[in-house]
Amino acid sequence: MVNETTQQRDITRLCIQCALLLLQHGAESMLVEQLSSRLGVALGMDAVESSISANAIVLTTIMQGHCLTSTRKNVDRGINMHVVTEVQRVVIMAEHKLLDVAGVAKRFSHIKPLRYPRWLMVTIVALSCGCFSRLNGGGWDAFLVTLIASGMAMYVRQVLTARHLNPLINFCITAFVATSASGLLMRVPALEHSSSVAMAASVLLLVPGFPLINAVADMFKGHVNTGLARWTMASLLTLSTCIGVVTAMVIWGLHGW
Q: What is any Pfam family matched here (predicted)?
């Protein structure tokens, strides 16, 4: 009986660690619920029940009529699909009996978020925003303005993120930098005839698309509370971006998009 209780406690910890890793790195709530349940069943539990909110996870494992419940606080660690796919891989391996309890615990301890080099992120984001300006009717001069402005903004965003600044303040400052850079570059004689789409394209890196998609997916699949929390956070990020853009336009006397 003691061994069974110890085993159930270990499996419960692994299940809630699985759920926490997924929720912290941007997985939708249904995926969090399903993978934690599948892991528990694969490791020998009769059933796994969980309650997911934006700030915490409550998870219960059931084995031979004995229930064990654990609660963990959720701290957002940013969207990282590498962690999500690694957790999925561990669960699938456990289902195919390739990993036992100790093997799953070892795999989870080795999962680390994949971080791309800062210069690569800045380059890719700048190019993508520049290409968007071209696709929306801007010329090569608008492409250049967007490329420089969005690159500067992405660099500032990453520096502020590394210093663990509040995301709302981060987005506001980044939007201010992007709008200021694009607006002032368009006053340079060689670039003064650039399309105004450059100013809009330079802040595209701040569109919270992933949180909004997850918010809709959560509400559609029944996790209304988590969905509303994510929708609210995405809306606040959008509002912060707008404040940064408007502030830059007022300070520098820039005209609308």
A: ThrE
